[in-house]
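QUALITY CONTROL LOG
STEP: pairwise intake check
CHECKER ROLE: data steward
CRITERIA: each record must contain a sequence immediately followed by its structure tokens, with no blank fields

ENTRY 1 OF 2
RESULT FIELD BELOW
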Amino acid sequence: MSRKKPKSHIRKWTKNVVKKIIKTPFSITANTEKSAVSKANPFDQNINKNDVSDTGTESMRLAYTSVKKGKNAIKTVKRSVKTTQRTIKTAGNVVKSTGTVIYRTTAFTVKSTILVSKFVGNVVVHVVASLMNPIVIIFLGLIIVFLICFSSILMIIASDDTNKSARLNAVGLGNISSQYQIGLEYLNTALENHQNNFNSLIDSMYYNYDDLTNSSLVYMERTNSDDEKAVYEKSFSIDDRKNALKSEWNISLTEREFLAIAYVYLENEKNNTNHSEHGIYQVSYNQEVFDTIVAKCAVYSDNVYSGQKCPDENCASHVEMQHNPAYDEAVEATNHFLNAYNEWTGIADLITYHDTIKDGASQRAYWDSNVQWRIDNWKSVYFDSCYYSNGGWDYADDLYSWYSASFDYMITVPEETEAVAYICEYKHDLHSVGLIFFDKETVMNALEFDNISKQWVELTERGFENNPNIS
């Protein structure tokens, strides 16, 4: 007849089973054995690398897979818990095995997930071994629920902080300081090229002082991000005006803003290619991205209108031949001297004859009746004064010399002159130039950045500013 074991022995056996199972989460970290149940583990599946939604499942699969591959994550569970704060701060260490990083979870979260995954697999084994004890099952279920919930909360918190840290530190660039300098060189090249293209447009406008009729005209309006406008009215495209127009070039974005926008733009391109959203990929600056962004910062246009008139309508001269009034005056003066000379020679003959009369009374009578009235008439027509030395012939010689001088001048005066009329022949090309500078917000909108991308830019700028390796 068999003897029954005391109930105290049963209680002791049950107590030992419970104690063994309670200790299991901590003791199983050194155990990598498999069981038949673990083969049906839902975490024992390939990781979906195309899914970037942060539900926690992929992280747990990643953790479980890491355990199967024999990584040392299990052995560092306790250390990861103690260094949670440090792990979050150093989230900039990017996994480079696949060339991309999407929602990288911190070491703390990964290791916690490994613990839960391993715990689930081994606990099921022990449950089977414990013959499905109800007390153990209930207690074990509570522990599993607690650990899973606790791990999920930590994953959410750590993931949020990690994302922020990763975006702040622009981890997708890898060697940030090196990439920053490379990006700066690309930026300077893009800025220089874009401005040179605008300058070339202005310099190409034709102007020649000796060919004003065909010279170009220019009108320009410049608008900046504050809607402040500068207007340059229509004028010839002379060098001074060209220099004034080129001096209006002024992009307001800083180099950090440019490099932060470029970084997020590259990340967005990667996300579009991979059909993901706001994931962090490994990227590198290139010339094309900066050319694209700079082109959004400063936009200019040139509309050309032909057949336009210049401002003063005096770019061309029209010549007509006209009769020269000065010639008439010269001819009149010459004829005046000639007539004065001819008439005076007749008077000189009378004066000479008068001087030959010996009788004083007869001489006076002859002067009064034949000479004096002629001299008076001559003076009223030609000159106010005259003299009578050498019978009046000395004065005649002077009159002739005056006539000769007047004649010599007359023949130098053209009978007709060219009349120049200044007109515009409407042969000008008018360049109507528009130059607009946009602010950072407008540039990001033009690049189709959503609010998260804009916040990412702000975080990246802050990271650049606080990076001691970036001067």
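ENTRY 2 OF 2
RESULT FIELD BELOW
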Amino acid sequence: MKLSVLALSVLMISSGSAIAQIEDTIELDKTSMQSSHFLKQQVRSSNSVGRAIRTVLARYPENTPELVEIALDAYPDKYREIVSAAVSSQPAYVDDILELAIERDFAPATELVTLAINAEPSYAEYATEAACKFSPEQFNEIVKTAVTMEPDSADQIAKRLAKIYPNKTLEVLVTTIQEVPLVGKYVIEALLALFPVDSSESESMIIISVEQLAQHPEALERLVELAERRGIEQYLISASAMRGGLTNAQAKLYVDRHYLNEPID
């Protein structure tokens, strides 16, 4: 059977493309093998996976995901050391680092986010976001772990998660307040900044926060002040405070200090 010039050309182009793809794959495999060999050499010379990771990533930061993947596959029992060293060396890659560790199911996401936050506390909100993204089924536990570990960043963690998961804003708020009530007033202010002053979401968050923080005088004082300023009816605030465990008389003390001209019936 004779082939036309066009058919021969197509066949040659196809063959050439296939050969090129094979060559590319071989080259990629070769590069990966070289990287693996290089990393293992570093581990042997430094006698520590963590030190080797820090050294290699400092020299080749742009290859962080690839090198971390090689390390996790080569030394799976050293995942704690690898995650900690990688995040402390290249925190900007915390998303990739946690994704690689989570998809290998070495440990619960809560443990991995703990390692990441300990390694670089200033990236707590980004580590929390990454852990929630790759382990959504552990969302609440991850939030609890993160805000407990880094309470000074609780408002920023909550705000970032609320922006990314707006349908979970109240869930984030309640979880955060329950774990670190002393920073509750900062968390509510951070989240309220995401919504218009007169929105129903804003009102709901204040009312729920009053209930959750009823036993914490400083935070409750701030919330009642915010409620009055935003025009939330005082009976709603009083009822919420009582649901949180205050007596009618105790709730009235807070409300009366701010709703001076609107006595409760």
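INTAKE CHECK: passed for both entries
DESCRIPTIVE NOTE, ENTRY 2: The radius of gyration is 27 Å.
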